[in-house]
From TrEMBL:
One of its GO terms (cellular component) is plasma membrane. InterPro entries: ATPase_P-typ_cyto_dom_N (IPR023299), ATPase_P-typ_P_site (IPR018303), ATPase_P-typ_TM_dom_sf (IPR023298), ATPase_P-typ_transduc_dom_A_sf (IPR008250), ATPase_P-type_domA (IPR059000), HAD-like_sf (IPR036412), HAD_sf (IPR023214), HMA_dom (IPR006121). GO terms for biological process: copper ion homeostasis. CDD domains: HMA. The keyword Transport applies. It is found in: Cell membrane. Residues 25-91 form the HMA domain. Gene3D superfamilies: 3.30.70.100, Calcium-transporting ATPase, cytoplasmic domain N, Calcium-transporting ATPase, cytoplasmic transduction domain A, HAD superfamily/HAD-like. SUPFAM superfamilies: Calcium ATPase, transduction domain A, Calcium ATPase, transmembrane domain M, HAD-like, HMA, heavy metal-associated domain. Keywords: ATP-binding, Cell membrane, Hydrolase, Ion transport, Magnesium, Membrane, Metal-binding, Nucleotide-binding, Phosphoprotein, Translocase, Transmembrane, Transmembrane helix, Transport. Coiled coil: none annotated. This is Cadmium-translocating P-type ATPase.
Length: 726
């Protein structure tokens, strides 16, 4: 993605992507090159200096910069140019064509790490030979080995050090410092001094220290980049659910395929069976059924008729519909859900890790310490060479490798442990947040229940009645039909079966006309009282005989009760939030012993409840598409393995095999991980308290500093490995 210039702007004018939000305008940009909290502060701060900009927020995971501004649409061009002047490429954010910005960076770091590792292994072999031959190796042989080391280390350091050098240069150009500046300085000084020593044939070379330092730094940088990149997948996959093409009906009645983004409120559209709704709309003509799980979370198709509202992302299952758009694509429900998901991700990335906070102090402290060491040895010791060596040793020995690995090492080990327990951890800091959760919120359908309706009253029905319904049901893939077919087992089907949209099934059995479907279609009186008044139902009618009621229920998972008890035993309060009717919700809550339950909630209402519980660091467990915003908004979230793809993407952890018992296990591992992280921070602090004074007072050479730094990294990694023990 190249930076925008005037030519690019003409071909990809950002003003075309401006949308109205009340009295203000909104623009989403894809920003490349932002990698840290400093970049966020720089970009947001720079834009907020513009008088027209009311709000700017950058999501580091997705690279999406959301800007709200006032003035004409052409102001978008100035905003893009401002971002560019800050040193970052920016283009209009187009999720359907956007690429994951983290993938190229991951590949780059991986290649740099491989080169540094190769160089470290070979240079260390040569160094060991020099050390082993000390006193016996002649000068010429030692010089030759040093020159070979230099030939390996120099190109490796130039190639592998680019991520640090470029970051340091960018910081210096902006007249600021970051943690890559002292790292780059240490590498350059070590390489430069080594060449100098090699040329004059005096002293030691420290090529091994330089490449070893790069190798360990790149391990930490790669692990952190990989974990961060996973956090931005949810919004991108949710955007993929949006239809890219709509069929607009012209004034003359002709139908023309147009990009969905060109649809405006008031346009008449034709939606064929199997198509997704491109925008929010209201039905003008046609009847049918639609998969509305995006809105309600229920897998049962909803019936549609003229006057009903439909939402973007819903799938038209049967019949052709003529609809009237009520919102543009960017203002539709699915776009709003995508923004909610991304807002949830942004909230996560706003969690500033303890290591990041410590790293903010790193650059100025280390530079000051190294400078004082150099000055002290020159002024007091009158030894410039020793001053340079000791300053390099300070820069290396204070390298935050142990600090950088303290969190990623624990996360990687904990993620591996949970993977073997059937839990996938997708967000790097998810375990840290899970460890602090004090309330667990569960969705009902598909989470605590199986999400597959079963016939509830087979004992109240005659076998021939069930078989009669099954002859129709075996011809349908409707969940209720499958439940009846499963209850009856294998068998034949009725003749001339047809499925009436919004009604049910109709066919001929032994010459008799049989219908199986909803109460309204059959003409039956649905029960409004009694223990099964709110249960899922279908009716069977043979000819003009009295209809027979079939009742269905969604069974609770076998380990749901034990899981709720185990979660509460760990000090978390439990709560049930569902979009289903109150009757089934209350029944499930009562059966599982969940004290609080709310029913018939829309996605926004679930988010509102989660936000109200923010003080309890809520853990959200769900599976439906409509749960995705709530999963993203929660402090930490878990999705079932059988959940909708977008829910799995939005969640921080995914349970494989749908074993609810994995949830308390994940909590235990998360709490143990948190303890290991703080222990690693303590180890890193102790290491620096001991090693830094030794380096300042000349007791440590650059090579010993690199080995000590590496040893501290191994120490924190070994502490993280303790998580493997159950």
């Amino acid at each position: 993605m190249a930076p925008l210039d005037a030519a690019n702007l003409r071909g990809n004018d950002p003003s075309a992507f401006v949308r109205s939000e009340g009295d203000a305008k909104a623009l989403d940009l894809a920003v490349e090159g932002a990698r840290c909290a400093g970049c966020i502060s720089k970009i947001e701060g720079g834009l907020n200096e513009m008088e027209s900009v009311k709000h700017a927020r950058l999501n580091l995971s997705t690279g999406r910069l959301a800007v709200t501004f006032t003035g004409p649409d052409s102001e978008a061009r100035r905003i893009v140019e401002k971002v560019r002047s800050l040193g970052y490429a920016a283009t209009p954010f187009q999720p359907e064509t956007g690429e994951d910005p983290g993938k190229s960076e991951e590949k780059r770091l991986l290649r740099a790490m491989a080169v540094a590792g190769f160089a470290t292994a070979n240079v260390m072999l040569l160094s060991v030979s020099v050390w082993a031959g000390e006193g016996e190796m002649d000068f010429g042989t030692r010089q030759l080995l040093h020159w070979i080391s230099a030939m390996i280390a120099l190109p490796a350091a130039i190639y592998s050090g680019r991520p640090f050098f470029e970051s340091a240069l960018r910081a210096l150009k902006a007249k600021s410092l970051n943690m890559d500046v002292p790292i780059s300085l240490a590498i350059c000084l070590a390489m430069g001094l080594s060449f100098y020593e090699l040329l004059i044939g005096h002293g030691d070379a420290y090529f091994d220290a330089a490449v070893m330092l790069l190798f360990f730094l790149l391990i930490g940088r790669y692990l952190d980049s990989r974990l961060r990149a996973k956090a931005g997948q949810a919004a991108r996959q949710l955007a993929a659910l949006q239809a890219s093409v709509a069929h607009r009906i012209g004034a003359d009645g002709t139908v023309k395929a147009v990009p969905a983004r060109e649809i405006a409120p008031g346009d008449r559209l034709l939606v064929a069976a199997g198509d997704r709704m491109p925008v929010d709309a209201v039905i003008l003509e046609g009847c049918g059924q639609a998969d509305a799980s995006l809105v309600t979370g229920e897998t049962r198709p909803v019936e549609l008729s003229p006057g009903d509202a439909v939402y973007s992302g819903m799938v038209n299952l049967t019949g052709t519909l003529t609809v009237k758009a009520t919102a543009a694509r960017e203002d539709s429900l699915l776009a709003e859900i995508a923004r909610l998901v991304e807002a949830g991700e942004q909230n996560r990335s706003s969690y500033v890790r303890l290591a990041d906070r410590a790293a903010r102090l790193y650059a100025p402290v280390v530079h000051t310490l190294a400078a004082l060491t150099l000055i002290g040895w020159i002024v007091i010791g009158n030894d410039p060479r020793a001053g340079i060596l000791n300053a390099i040793a300070v820069l290396i020995i204070t390298c935050p490798c142990a600090l950088a690995l303290a969190v990623p090492a624990v996360q990687i080990v904990a993620c591996g442990r949970l993977y073997r327990e059937g839990v996938l951890v997708k967000s790097g800091d998810a375990l840290e947040r899970l460890a602090t959760a004090r309330r667990a919120i569960f969705d009902k359908t598909g989470t605590l229940t199986l999400g597959k309706p079963k016939l509830l009253n087979p004992h109240a029905l005659r076998p021939e009645t069930i078989e009669l319904a099954a002859k129709l049901a075996r011809s349908s893939r409707h969940p209720v039909s499958r439940a009846v077919a499963d209850a009856a087992g294998m068998g034949d089907t009725a003749k001339d079966v047809r499925e009436v949209p919004g009604g049910g099934l109709e066919g001929v059995v032994d010459g008799r006309r049989v219908r199986f479907g909803s109460a309204g279609w059959i003409g039956a009186d649905s029960e409004t009282s009694g223990p099964q008044a709110h249960a899922m139902e279908a009716w069977l009618q043979v000819e003009d005989q009295a209809p027979v009621r079939f009742v269905f229920s969604d069974a609770v998972r076998s380990d749901a009760r034990d899981m709720i008890a185990a979660v509460e035993a760990r000090g978390l309060e439990t709560e049930l939030l569902s979009g289903d009717r109150s009757g089934p919700v209350e029944a499930v809550a009562r059966e599982l012993g969940i004290g609080q339950a709310q029913a018939e909630l829309k996605p926004q209402e679930k988010i509102a409840r989660i936000e109200a519980l923010a003080g309890d660091n809520p853990l959200m467990v769900g599976d439906g598409i409509n749960d995705a915003p709530a999963l993203a908004a929660a402090h930490v979230s878990i999705s079932m393995g059988s959940a909708a793809e977008i829910s799995r993407s939005a969640a921080d952890l995914v349970i494989q095999g749908d074993r609810l018992s994995a949830i308390p296990t994940a909590i235990d591992v998360a709490r143990a991980s948190r303890r290991r992280v703080f222990e690693n921070f303590a180890l890193a602090a102790i290491y620096n308290c001991i090693a830094v004074p030794l380096a300042v007072f000349g007791f440590v050479t650059p090579l010993v500093a690199a080995i000590a730094m590496s040893g501290s990294s191994i120490l924190v990694t070994g502490n993280a490995m303790r998580l493997l023990r159950k």
